[in-house]
Design brief:
alpha+beta, 5 helices, DNA polymerase, domain 1, about 160 residues, 2 domains, 5-stranded mixed β-sheet, about 15% strand
Length: about 160
């Protein structure tokens, strides 16, 4: 079947099998490898993207379900960035606060944080933990990730 959607602001289309996952469409057909696949079971959150403004684990969504939607991947947060200052505030905060180590979970954590901050612009620690509970990190211990979310929230508030 043919799927047509907008990805990172660009109209895209592809022929897909009925069982093609959105994560596979993004990675394999569109070359957006920032969307990581860690488990294929919705447990790790590495594949989190925004679909029509909501954070979604793309390994649990069929590509056909994305028909007509607007998808934003980690690459789409700041597509023209060549300098640190041009990155999205959440990306800047994760880098500045060392909210990553190996980096495998980072794109999903960043996208989940974008969704969290849309729902809770000034989140409490409990809201941060709850908002990121579907995203696993095996390296950081989460302390710096939580700090990165707080820094990003302040940066976004200052930018409004």
């Amino acid at each position: 079947m043919k799927v047509e959607l907008t990805v990172n602001g660009q109209p895209r289309s592809a022929q897909v099998e009925d069982n093609t996952l959105l994560a596979d469409l993004l990675r394999e057909q569109f070359g957006l490898t920032g969307t990581h696949v860690g488990c294929d079971t919705s447990q790790c959150g590495c594949c989190t993207v925004m679909v029509d403004g909501q954070s979604v684990k793309s390994c649990t969504m069929l590509a056909a379900q994305a028909q007509g939607t607007k998808v934003v991947t980690v690459e789409g947060l700041s597509p023209d960035a060549t300098e640190f200052e041009q990155l999205h505030p959440v990306q800047q905060a994760f880098a500045a606060c060392h909210g990553l180590q190996c980096g495998f979970c980072t794109p999903g954590m960043i996208m989940a944080t974008v969704g969290l901050l849309q729902r809770h612009p000034n989140p409490t620690d409990e809201q941060i933990r709850e908002g990121l509970e579907g995203n696993l990190c095996r390296c950081t211990g989460y302390v710096n990730i939580i700090e990165a979310v707080k820094v990003a929230a302040k940066a976004q508030e200052a930018g409004r």
